[in-house]
Automatic annotation (TrEMBL):
SUPFAM superfamilies referenced in this protein's UniProt entry, alphabetically: Composite domain of metallo-dependent hydrolases, Metallo-dependent hydrolases
Residue ranges of coiled coil: none
Top-level taxon of the source organism: Bacteria
GO cellular-component term (any): cytosol
Stored InterPro entries: Amidohydro-rel, Hydantoinase/dihydroPyrase, Metal-dep_hydrolase_composite, Metal_Hydrolase, Metallo-dep_Hydrolases_sf
Protein name as catalogued: Dihydropyrimidinase
Cofactor: Zn(2+)
Domain Amidohydrolase-related: 51-442
Posttranslational mods: Carbamylation allows a single lysine to coordinate two divalent metal cations.
Single GO term (MF): metal ion binding
Alphabetic keyword roster: Hydrolase, Metal-binding
Entries under NCBIfam families matching the protein: D-hydantoinase (TIGR02033), PRK13404.1 (NF009941)
Length: 472
């Protein structure tokens, strides 16, 4: 009888701490041995010349999220997790949105119903708090946090979503009491509305105006304010989708004052700029996301943050809308005025190849840093560690095998999401995830889907996460 279910042999194994030549053995969905010359398994995968990494965890993904009247997000759980899987991810964390007047429980029941039986990767949910009533804050949230919903996103922008400072303080206070982690979208809504009004008055309503109505100052000010509110409450905080050096400086300064802050950036801030919103006429709408991509200097700053540790998390912020669709980017109002173009771009399948190619293969970061930024730190920040995020005895056998020699040109036609374009179309990358294993089950093998819908499961978070900046 075989001792193991699966052995992955002869690969270069990496964790967030180091990398080494080893075989790894899996049984009952967990890592059970890491060693040399392992034998005795039902299945054996030869990973000679390949990298064997913890499966990617994308902790910032939007799927089937209500996005305004008449707008339908391009991915449901089936297409979103399939696309994630082909991009080398084994777990994704989408957001369950509480709509105004809705109880959080009600929102969760509906969101779970959308995910159940549909997933190719494991999933775990964050909550978006849009209506922090006394009962949500005092009763629902503490019970939900105790039940494994331990991360909450709040917005400082968007009508219907934005919280004011008093409300953010209350949410932060609940997080201090319960051990939940608060993620903040930092942009100053009043300043944005002021600039939108000016642009509209001047008749400047094409998609590229999206970037000029959300300048760096708008993000920098809100970042400073969010960090100051966390300092007042004395609680850790996550600043998501940071796009530029000035917001990064706020994070560094807050850390120097003792604020426990986790910083996140995304591919669009490393490889796109506002110029990508130029010259395509209304096709610029394909690049509309918030915060918007900036300029080459901001790009260089974000790379520095990846290299030096200002950023702990590299996420996709996959927020997919179709371009040529009256329910998405080209909705009747969005096709005449930028302010009605849904904000967000697809990217869950391209996140890892972009950082691998531009980061690891170009020598900006090493393999352990890649693993930390794309997997381990996500698990630690959001309560999935040590079950997920590392190759370690007893952890879930979530594995991505990379071919570092593979060369690909990103073409949306070859991706698996529900959108109709990729912002990274035509980008040439070196290195691609070829085989992906979720909790011991081979799901993609040599680029071919072999797993089934429904094999991905919901994973609750632990209540007081290990934390990478001492959150617990
Ligand atoms: N914020 C996100 O986190 N994702 C997409 C749109 C947005 O504003
Ligand atoms: Zn956001
Ligand atoms: Zn997002």
């Amino acid at each position: 009888m075989s001792e193991f279910d699966l052995i992955i042999a002869n690969g270069t194994v990496a964790t967030a701490a180091n990398f080494f030549a080893a075989d790894i053995a899996v049984k009952d969905g967990k890592f059970v041995q890491i060693g040399q010359n392992l034998t005795g398994s039902k299945r054996r995968i030869d990973a000679s010349g390949k990298f064997v990494l913890p499966g990617g965890i994308d902790s910032h993904v939007h799927i089937s999220q209500p996005s305004g009247e008449g707008i339908v997000m391009a991915d449901d759980f089936e297409s979103g997790t399939l696309s994630a899987l082909f991009g080398g991810n084994t777990t994704i964390m989408p957001f369950c949105l509480q709509e105004k007047g809705q109880s959080m429980r009600e929102a969760l029941t509906a969101y779970h119903a959308l995910a159940d039986g549909q997933c190719y990767t494991d999933v775990s949910f964050h909550l978006i708090i849009s209506d922090p009533t006394a009962s949500v804050l005092g009763q629902e949230l503490p019970a939900l946090v105790a039940g494994g919903y331990t991360s909450l996103k709040v917005f400082m922008t968007y009508e219907g979503l934005r919280l004011n400072d008093a409300e953010i303080l209350k949410v932060l206070d609940v997080s201090r009491e319960t051990g939940a982690t608060v993620m903040v979208h930092c942009e100053n809504e009043d300043a944005i509305l002021f600039l939108i009004a000016k642009h509209e008055l001047a008749g400047d309503v094409a998609p590229r105006a999206h970037a000029s109505t959300r300048p760096i100052a708008v993000e920098r000010e809100a970042t400073h304010r969010a960090l100051s509110l966390a300092e007042v409450v004395d609680v850790p905080i996550v600043i998501v989708h940071v796009s530029n050096g000035e917001a990064m400086d706020e994070i560094a300064r807050a850390r120097a004052r003792g604020v426990k802050v986790v910083g996140e950036t995304c591919p669009q801030y490393l490889v796109l700029t506002a110029k990508d919103l130029d010259g395509m006429d209304w096709e610029d709408a394909k690049m509309v996301c918030s915060p918007p991509p900036r300029d080459e200097a901001a790009q260089a700053d974000c790379w520095q943050g990846i290299e030096t540790g200002v950023f702990d998390l590299f996420s996709s912020d996959h927020c997919p809308f179709r371009y040529d669709d009256p329910q998405d980017k080209l909705n009747p109002k969005g096709s005449v005025n930028f302010r009605h173009i849904p904000n967000g771009i697809p990217g869950v399948e391209t996140r890892l190849p972009i950082l691998f190619s531009e980061g690891v293969m170009k020598g900006r970061i090493d393999l352990p840093r890649f693993v930390a930024l794309t997997s381990t730190n996500h698990a630690k920040t959001y309560g999935l560690y040590p079950q997920k995020g590392s190759i370690a005895i007893g952890a879930d056998a979530d594995i991505t095998i990379w071919d570092p020699e593979a060369k690909r040109t990103i073409r949306h036609a070859e991706l698996h999401d529900g959108s109709d374009y990729s912002p990274y179309e035509g980008m040439y990358v070196t290195g691609w995830p070829v085989t992906t294993i979720v909790a011991g089950a081979v799901m993609v093998e040599d680029g071919i889907l072999v797993g089934k819908k429904g094999q991905g499961k919901y994973r609750p978070a632990t209540t007081r996460p290990v934390g990478i900046r001492g959150q617990a």
